[in-house]
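User: I'm putting together notes for a lab meeting next week and I want to include a structural view of one of the chains we've been expressing. I don't have a solved structure, so I'd like a prediction I can at least talk through. The sequence is below, exactly as it appears in our construct file.
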Amino acid sequence: MTVMMKLASLETKMFFRDRISVFWTFLFPVLMIWLFGSMFGDSDMNGLSFAEMFVPSWIGVNIVTTSFFTLGTVLTGYRETGVLRRYQSTPVQSWMILAAHTFQGAVIFAISALLLMIFGMMMYDLTLPAYIGSTLIALVVSMLAFFPFALFLTSLAKNTQSAAAISSLCLNVMLFLSGAAFPLQFMPDIIQTVAKALPLYYVVELLRGTWNTAPITEYGLEVGVLLGIAVLSTVLASRFFRWSDQ
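Assistant: Thanks for the context. Below is the predicted structure for the 246-residue chain, given as structure tokens.
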């Protein structure tokens, strides 16, 4: 546990030294909320205000960006540059590395989610979640699903460029087809069907619902799907973890 925490602390410090990662993780989501707010800020969507609709959604999107770009792509880069092979010659085990990066990702995500919530409150009169305990549980379930999911997919990449391409593809597909960026009811029926095959759809539904409508006990399907993804992805991420490209 001590080794894992030291690794997590080191990775967190390295993250904050990378200005590009800091921008995409913390500032880009705020800019997107401001952009959408300039277009839909006064709109009423299914009885929800702009902030109630979009801030929980973009917190869900931040889980995706943190999973793929802060965790998955970084580990692929470590494998490509030989950092993981150096770890292999030490007592550090693969689960410690995965756990350390997962903890680091959770800390970074928590900061980004807090920034989004504060921005929504200041600019668009966002209120605290109606079922705050359920929302916190929903966030944990979403991270448990997406962190190993991203680690598994990027572990299949041969190099950092491939991992970045996989991450960008997954992010863009889920961002525009899951209902996070545009309400699904305005989309064709085929898109609404496709959306239900995307993990982010269940994250968005769960976060929006627990933030505004009902406790997490009313979202058994969403929780079940995300926990299933979490278990399967954890098994696959551990199975396909590689110390090097050899």
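A couple of points you could mention at the meeting. The longest strand covers residues 44-45. Strands lie at 44-45, 48-49.

User: Perfect, that's what I needed.
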